[in-house]
Specification:
The protein is α/β, with parallel strands linked by helices and 210 residues long. The chain is built from 7 helices and 6 strands.
């Protein structure tokens, strides 16, 4: 098990298989203000690959061209596993200009099938379904820093290392409760939901009567 930090793009020769865990870190949570700083990836093999997008000299925007990362995340044959994919898909659409699909979102799956609780954070479902404890101490830190600390790298990696196992557990529960079709329809809607967020409807329920 190892964490690998790359600058601006993935290196040549990496293979992630048919399903890849994905997460992002940004300078904040505002869609029109806070930029993408880091993309974390895992094939579910215990390794994490982190692609950092630092600002250039004189405050210039990061280089988001990232051809190898874009190709991977745009590949329709590769399922992307997120936790709260709505935000990550929005950030990838905005800064990398790609639609990440098809998708499995562990937070949506949890809300559809773990109806006995209102605790659907990654730490909560990892603890219950996998018996794994993950730390959130670095959640609010400076992800725009030119040099990430070991603690930041470890935290960022932990957000993707368990998503494959969570997907398997949640798929079993969704099938058991007859809610897999509902989950899959919700996952397919996520890129549209992300586009709505970017277009100014992030706080509007367009399906509401009023």
């Amino acid at each position: 098990m190892a964490n690998f930090l790359h600058i601006d793009d993935l290196p040549d020769g990496l293979a992630f298989g048919s399903a890849i865990a994905v997460d992002t870190e940004t300078t904040g949570l505002h869609p029109k203000r806070d930029r993408l700083c880091l993309v974390q990836l895992s094939a579910g093999d215990g390794d994490a690959h982190l692609v950092q997008f630092p600002r250039k000299k004189n405050g210039l925007q990061p280089d988001y061209s990232a051809p190898r990362l874009r190709k991977l995340l745009s590949d329709k044959k590769v399922e992307k596993i997120f936790h709260f994919g709505r935000f990550d898909i929005m950030v990838l659409l905005r800064d990398l200009e790609l639609e990440a699909s098809p998708v499995f979102c562990t937070k949506i799956a949890s809300k559809l099938v773990r109806t006995y609780t209102d605790r659907h954070g990654l730490r909560d479902i990892c603890s219950e379904l996998l018996g794994v404890s993950i730390s959130k101490e670095q959640q609010s830190s400076d992800w725009g820093s030119l040099k990430l600390s070991d603690a930041q790298i470890g935290y960022a990696a932990s957000d993707v290392l368990h998503l494959h196992a969570l997907r398997s557990k949640l798929q079993e529960m969704l099938l058991r409760e007859g809610r897999m079709d509902l989950a899959e329809a919700s996952f397919k809607y996520l890129p549209t939901r992300a586009a709505l967020d970017l277009s100014g409807w992030e706080n509007v329920d367009i399906f509401a009567h009023s």
